[in-house]
Amino acid sequence: MAVRKTDKGWLVDLRPNGRDGKRVRRTFRTQSEARRFENKILATIADGSQYAPARKDQRRLNDLIDLWHRHHGSSLKASRERVRSLRKVAEAIGNPIAQTFTAQDWAEYRAKRLEEVAPITVNHEHTYLKAVFSELERLGLWTHGNPLARMRLLRVEETEMAYLTDDDISRLLQHLKGLPNRDCYYITLLCLTTGSRWSEAETLRAENVGKDRVTYVATKSGKNRTIPIAPRLAGQLRKRRRIGRLFVTSYKVFGQAIKDTGIALPPGQLTHVLRHTFASHFMMNGGNILVLQRILGHQSLTMTMRYAHFAPDHLEDAVKLNPLAGVDKMWTQQKSRP
Question: Could you count the other beta carbons within 10 Å of the beta carbon of residue 233?
Answer without folding.
Answer: 17
